[in-house]
């Protein structure tokens, strides 16, 4: 399966996100992450999707169908070289005794923020690409991950070429 990041500029209207996501459902594609938010223009919103498909033909078809939706202004497939793509995770991990300092030391390497501390746990915030997040997760897994929640990926084209 090949991962694809789509940046979709839409009218900031109710139901647009549902209509875009339902296209993936009808075609049998899973959405790994979905995030949506306002843009520099309050009338517009940007939807960022991360999906995996078997081949480029499948993603080309879904892009064509998204472009046909009434409230869609532009759809761009972002590549790794010309875009920045990040996700934020909150990770709740067991952190008792000497393990606490070891977890914090690992976190420093990854540039995390400890956002909550109890006697038995830490909640850590980490921002990064998929590789960084997976590496961090694998290193702290032996300590006992209690819960993870992710924001979904956000992405932006590099340079002066705007998606709009």
Automatic annotation (TrEMBL):
Q: Pathway of this protein?
A: Amino-acid biosynthesis; L-isoleucine biosynthesis; L-isoleucine from 2-oxobutanoate: step 1/4; Amino-acid biosynthesis; L-valine biosynthesis; L-valine from pyruvate: step 1/4
Q: Which CDD domains has this protein been placed in? A: ACT_AHAS
Enzyme type, top EC level: transferase
Catalytic activity from the UniProt record: 2 pyruvate + H(+) = (2S)-2-acetolactate + CO2
* Record bears the keyword Heme: no
- Alphabetical UniProt keywords: Amino-acid biosynthesis, Branched-chain amino acid biosynthesis, Transferase
**Domain ACT as annotated: residue spans:** 5-80
Q: Which NCBIfam families match?
A: acolac_sm (TIGR00119), PRK11895.1 (NF008864)
Please describe what this protein does.
Answer: Catalyzes the conversion of 2 pyruvate molecules into acetolactate in the first common step of the biosynthetic pathway of the branched-amino acids such as leucine, isoleucine, and valine.
Family per record: Belongs to the acetolactate synthase small subunit family.
Q: What is this protein called?
A: Acetolactate synthase small subunit
Q: Which organism is it from?
A: Clostridium frigoris
Gene that specifies this protein: ilvN
